[in-house]
Design a protein that fits this description.
- There is one protein chain.
- By secondary structure, the protein is an alpha+beta fold.
- The protein has 3 helices and 6 strands, in the order ααβββββαβ.
């Protein structure tokens, strides 16, 4: 699935997808049909730091990482002025199944 397809699915689910996402009850447990449980913490944000070189020497840059850290498909989300990397949490969570999403605080 392409990035564009993922974004379309995120922002405009089809009627079939909406129906599949409805909660059902089975054996006393509420299940979300169409959503598989995730293995590990791929859909949980991980706070990281990387040592960077700047005009005034070395500094730590914080970033949030989502998805499989070994995934070669990396998507970098860079915020605008006066914002931060956590602005992308909803988008990153939605794309973490297919991409390693990195959201730096620059």
């Amino acid at each position: 699935m392409s990035l564009l397809d993922s974004l379309k699915k995120l922002f405009r689910p089809s009627a079939a997808e909406s129906a599949a996402d409805r909660n059902t009850t089975q054996g006393g447990q509420t299940l979300a049909v169409g959503h598989e449980p995730t293995i590990g913490s791929a859909l949980q944000p991980r706070a990281r730091r990387v040592l960077c070189s700047g005009p005034h020497g070395l500094h730590n840059m914080a970033y949030t990482e989502w998805g499989d850290a070994k995934n070669p498909r990396v998507l970098v989300c860079v915020h605008g002025l006066t914002r931060n990397g956590r602005d992308f949490d909803d988008l990153a969570r939605a794309l973490a199944g297919e991409y390693r999403v990195v959201c730096p605080d620059v």
